[in-house]
């Protein structure tokens, strides 16, 4: 085997000793079966994904009793409590509103900017590069940036909006009717470029022939966009909606940094509510229950979405 | 696509520059906050262009001297805002978790790309599903598990959880890079008697090295920017930059200048990295499903 490999595959072995070392790799690694290759991944996912998952289920059936300083079995009580908890439904509502609003704005803005930047004129490559920068800023830092921009006293946005007469004297993040919008602006700013990049890749990969014949047939720009561009971008849009939708639904960083859920419960998302129940109010079991609930919602919705759009990986 | 008249092209260019300038403005403003004299942060109307330069925030945060305000001598290594150790924490966590995730993922994705087994489609989809898990649903049980095993507040704990977080991305993305390499190469080598391990080590992995590097960069960035796990699973032992920045907001006032300086320190390496992987960025952001 050694002999055949070395003569057959590599006519003049430069480092015979190194090749020999490779061939002395553990026997299971020489197999043609997938399992040994997947073992490290499976071990990692088993220990760090499945075990916490089942531990979470176990936790959701217990509750911490401060008097006894111990977890106590409560069975399905946490789940009963969950469905009767108006603040949880409020948090779910905020999360869904946040997800839907940001997703729609990012899709529309992203598509518009992608169409605008889809050009080979000088300078456009640079502009596309600049847009990617927002994607790598830690979301917690983005939260700080917008905390400063939206500050009630010296924020640039506050000042500009006040000068334009749109905003009164009430602070953006301190008012329950505008706080969520204030947080969403940070998300929209950071992740619209994500949509732009994905749509640009889709636009640039399109064949030109259908567009040429549509032009010859006298189609208007809107008709071309509606009947050609959009349908051809179908898969791209579906992927963008799936990935962004998942990330929006589990949003935590922005609300934690910018408002901590306040004022009142105006910006409580499901993730933040679960986290605070666990770590601020020491309701370990209930926090785990909420987090499991959000996991279930996201898995069901995402799986239905993948099935409907027939996405393949 | 459509041919535009010169006027239309100029209008388009102006609109494009304007839109990008709007998106770049918060970053620009944040950089000026990091470098301006402290009292000018609170000026009304806000100073956009005519601010005064000061290196004081940077000196305090990074313990380096620009020779301004005599700040560095007293503060280097000692001040409340000296953040070099936290920057080091961030680097250690990001580098180690990236190495771990990439080593596990290259092996797995080679197998997923080259070998066929029962339920493979479901397995790939299961990996994708782990990407959908809300981090909070992992962080809560992980906190109690780590407490039991003494992994709270340790590098090991954070590195493992960041590697886990990046595994779905790394596996799916690397699989797409391996899928780009023709299967005939493997088959020819197999016929010549090479083992799978040899083919992986000597042929396929070197051919995919660009893709592996791009994946590593993305894993690094996601670990670098991660917030929730570090917030939950550390107390005092280590803190990464995004988490420590959030502690600058206090009831007595926010140290905006220092926070901005730290933020700039966190952004610049990420900016450099992202510009390195422009070519594979869309593929990375879509977990390998869209190619540029």
**Strand tally of chain A:** 2
Level of helix content of chain B?
Answer: 55-70%
Strand order of the largest sheet of chain A: 1-2
Number of helices of chain A: 15
Overall mean pLDDT of chain A: 86
Order of secondary-structure elements of chain A: HHHEEHHHHHHHHHHHH
The general outline of chain B is: globular
User: Superfamily at the CATH H level of the largest domain in chain B?
Assistant: MetI-like
CATH architecture of chain A: Orthogonal Bundle
Largest inter-chain interface?
Answer: A-B, 110 and 112 residues
Topology as H/E string of chain B? HHHHHHHHHHHHEEHH
Beta-strand percentage range of chain B = under 5%
Structural class of chain A: mainly alpha
Proportion of residues in β-strands of chain A: under 5%
> Strand arrangement, largest sheet of chain B?
1-2
* Cα-to-Cα separation, first versus last residue of chain A: 37 Å
Taking pLDDT < 50 over at least 5 consecutive residues as the criterion, the unreliable ranges of chain A are 1-22
Largest sheet of chain A: 2 strands, antiparallel
- End-to-end Cα distance of chain B, whole Å, is 18 Å
- Category by helix and strand content of chain B: mainly alpha
Compile the SSE list and pairings.
The complex is a heterodimer of chains A (313) and B (292).
Chain A: H1 2-9, H2 16-23, H3 35-60, E1 62-65, E2 70-73, H4 77-84, H5 86-117, H6 124-132, H7 139-149, H8 156-164, H9 179-204, H10 209-216, H11 221-232, H12 234-249, H13 253-258, H14 270-279, H15 284-309
Antiparallel strand pairs in A: 1-2
Helix pairs in contact in A: 3-15, 4-15, 5-9, 5-12, 7-9, 9-12, 12-15, 14-15
Chain B: H1 6-35, H2 56-62, H3 71-75, H4 84-114, H5 120-132, H6 135-149, H7 155-179, H8 183-191, H9 196-207, H10 209-225, H11 228-233, H12 241-246, E1 249-250, E2 253-254, H13 256-276, H14 281-285
Antiparallel strand pairs in B: 1-2
Helix pairs in contact in B: 1-13, 2-13, 4-7, 4-10, 5-7, 7-10, 8-9, 10-13
């Amino acid at each position: 085997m050694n002999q055949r490999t070395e003569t057959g595959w590599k006519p003049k072995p430069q480092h015979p000793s190194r090749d020999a070392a490779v061939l002395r790799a553990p026997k299971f690694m020489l197999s043609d079966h997938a399992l040994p290759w997947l073992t490290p991944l499976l071990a990692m996912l088993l220990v760090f994904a499945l075990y916490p998952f089942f531990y979470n289920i176990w936790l959701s059936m217990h509750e911490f009793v401060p008097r006894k300083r111990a977890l106590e079995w409560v069975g399905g009580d946490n789940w009963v409590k969950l469905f009767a908890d108006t603040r949880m439904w409020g948090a779910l509502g905020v999360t869904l509103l946040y997800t839907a609003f940001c997703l729609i704005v990012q899709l529309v803005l992203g598509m518009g900017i992608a169409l605008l930047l889809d050009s080979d004129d000088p300078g456009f490559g640079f502009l596309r590069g600049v847009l990617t920068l927002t994607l790598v800023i830690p979301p917690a830092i983005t939260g700080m940036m917008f905390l400063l921009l939206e500050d009630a006293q010296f924020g640039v946005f506050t000042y500009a909006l006040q000068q334009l007469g749109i905003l009164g004297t009430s602070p953006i993040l301190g008012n329950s009717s505008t706080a969520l919008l204030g947080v969403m602006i940070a998300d929209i700013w950071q992740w619209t470029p994500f949509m732009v990049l994905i749509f640009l890749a889709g636009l640039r990969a399109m064949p030109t022939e259908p567009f040429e014949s549509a032009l010859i047939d006298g189609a208007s720009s809107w008709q071309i966009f509606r009947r050609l561009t959009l349908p051809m971008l179908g898969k791209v849009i579906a992927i963008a909606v799936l990935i962004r939708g998942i990330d929006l639904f589990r949003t935590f960083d922005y609300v934690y940094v910018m408002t901590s859920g306040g004022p009142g419960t105006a910006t409580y998302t499901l993730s933040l509510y679960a986290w605070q129940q666990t770590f601020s109010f020491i309701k370990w079991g209930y926090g785990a229950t909420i987090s499991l609930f959000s996991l279930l919602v996201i898995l069901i919705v995402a799986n239905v979405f993948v099935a409907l759009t027939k996405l393949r990986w | 696509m459509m041919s535009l008249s010169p006027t239309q092209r100029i209008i388009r260019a102006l609109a494009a520059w304007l839109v990008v300038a709007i998106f770049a403005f918060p970053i620009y403003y944040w950089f000026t906050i990091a470098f301006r004299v402290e009292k000018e942060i609170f000026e009304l109307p806000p100073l956009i262009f005519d601010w005064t330069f000061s290196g004081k925030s940077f000196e305090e945060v990074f313990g380096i001297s620009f020779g301004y305000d005599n700040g560095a001598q007293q503060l280097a290594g000692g001040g409340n805002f000296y953040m070099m150790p936290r920057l080091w924490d961030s680097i250690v966590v990001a580098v180690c978790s990236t190495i771990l995730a990439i080593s596990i993922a290259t092996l797995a994705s080679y197998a997923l790309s080259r070998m066929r087994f029962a339920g493979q489609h479901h397995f790939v989809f299961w990996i994708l599903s782990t990407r959908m898990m809300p981090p909070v649903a992992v962080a809560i049980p992980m906190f109690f598990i780590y407490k039991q095993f003494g992994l709270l507040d340790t590098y090991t704990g954070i590195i493992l959880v960041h590697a886990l977080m990046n595994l779905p991305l790394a596996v799916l993305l690397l699989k797409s890079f391996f899928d780009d390499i023709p299967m005939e190469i493997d088959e020819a080598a197999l016929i010549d008697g090479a083992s799978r391990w040899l083919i992986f080590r000597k042929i396929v992995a070197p051919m995919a090295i660009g893709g592996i590097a791009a994946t590593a960069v993305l894993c690094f960035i996601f670990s670098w920017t991660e917030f929730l796990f570090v917030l939950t699973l550390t107390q005092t032992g280590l803190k990464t930059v995004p988490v420590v920045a959030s502690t600058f907001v206090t009831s007595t006032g926010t140290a905006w200048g220092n926070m901005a300086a730290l933020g700039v320190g966190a952004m610049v390496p990420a900016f450099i990295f992202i510009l390195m992987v422009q070519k594979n960025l869309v593929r990375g952001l879509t977990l390998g499903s869209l190619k540029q």
